């Protein structure tokens, strides 16, 4: 079967490997025929060559793990040892081994759910990041609040859209990439084209948001900017993926402003994938606006190259069989 692996920074190699079969499926897992994948911001540090904490990421110049680093996947079940999934089902969710870039993928069935058959595979793959966003927003009080989202990449724009749809009074989106062309479509009331340090340094006390969502990750600075920006009594949600074990934060600001800091990974995945399907049905314009670029499996390198460039009209990138 076809598969990809990272052999050097910014460099995929396509290869043929023995296909996975039903014999590779353990209890609770399923075997999927690849239909589509999404490129996530958390995939980009491994693409650049950064060594992560995934078991097996042991290559000299890059991970060299087959199928790595993709985890957003849509597939057809071809073998199942999970009670909720049957052969022939089409499902969306997590490639639990972070190995979704191959023709057949073994995945934990608890992280998969069926989706509306009327959706194309490229649109269905967007339900996985949407599920993550909805789970995170369940932890927050949004109704009538001013919400700021630092980072208006594909996940940050989803946060902006969902926050507004769930009752936020005002949404501010902050990103150095020009999002004037797409921000309003995703519910952003105030589009700030600037880095977060510049934004917060010019923020008047009366304009401080009640909720600040950090949707950047992969460095330590923006969490501090989120804490500085939040209004007294406000909440900071750290969603961006940390590449460092320890983050310095302004504890005096946390204390004096009575702030709440939240973070965490997505749990209860089947439920929130179902919730994402329902949310997409209620907002039928969302997925088509969200998935802006689609590549075939012969163009994986091009898909990731584009994901690394600050292109104003690029939101979500899908890879399809």
UniProtKB/TrEMBL annotation:
Pfam families: ADH_N (PF08240), ADH_zinc_N (PF00107). GO terms for molecular function: oxidoreductase activity. It comes from the Bacteria. Residues 27-92 form the Alcohol dehydrogenase-like N-terminal domain. Keywords: Oxidoreductase. Its cofactor is Zn(2+). The keyword NAD does not apply. Transmembrane segments: none annotated. InterPro entries: ADH-like_C (IPR013149), ADH-like_N (IPR013154), GroES-like_sf (IPR011032), NAD(P)-bd_dom_sf (IPR036291), Zn_alcohol_dh (IPR050129). Residues 155-263 form the Alcohol dehydrogenase-like C-terminal domain. This is Alcohol dehydrogenase. It comes from Mycolicibacterium tusciae.
């Amino acid at each position: 079967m076809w598969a990809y692996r990272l052999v050097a920074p910014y460099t995929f190699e396509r290869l043929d490997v023995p296909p996975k079969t039903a014999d590779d499926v353990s209890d609770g897992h399923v075997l999927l025929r690849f239909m589509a994948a999404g490129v996530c911001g958390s995939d980009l540090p491994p693409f650049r060559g950064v060594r992560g904490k995934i078991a097996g990421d042991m290559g000299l110049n890059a991970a060299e793990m087959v199928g790595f680093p993709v985890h957003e996947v849509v597939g057809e079940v071809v073998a199942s040892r999970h009670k909720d999934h049957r052969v022939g089902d089409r499902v969306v969710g997590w490639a639990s081994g972070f190995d979704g870039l191959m023709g057949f993928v073994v995945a934990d069935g608890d992280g998969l759910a069926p989706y509306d058959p009327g959706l194309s595979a490229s649109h269905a793959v967007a339900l996985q990041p949407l599920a993550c966003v909805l789970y995170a927003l369940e932890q927050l009080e949004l109704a009538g609040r001013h919400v700021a989202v630092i980072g208006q990449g594909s996940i940050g724009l989803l946060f902006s859209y969902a926050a507004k749809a769930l009752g936020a009074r005002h949404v501010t989106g902050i990103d150095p990439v020009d999002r004037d062309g797409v921000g309003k479509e995703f519910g952003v009331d105030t589009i700030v084209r600037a880095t977060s340090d510049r934004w917060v340094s010019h923020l008047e006390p009366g304009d401080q948001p009640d909720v600040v969502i950090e949707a950047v990750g992969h460095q330590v600075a923006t969490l501090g900017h989120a804490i500085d920006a939040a209004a007294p009594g406000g909440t900071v949600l750290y969603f961006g993926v940390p590449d460092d074990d320890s983050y310095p934060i302004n504890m005096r600001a946390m204390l004096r402003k009575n702030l709440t800091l939240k973070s965490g990974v997505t749990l209860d995945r089947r439920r929130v994938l179902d919730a994402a399907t329902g949310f997409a049905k209620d907002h039928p314009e969302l997925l088509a606006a969200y998935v802006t670029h689609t590549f075939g499996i012969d163009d994986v390198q091009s898909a990731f190259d584009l994901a690394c460039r600050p292109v104003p009209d690029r939101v979500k990138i899908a890879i399809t069989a």
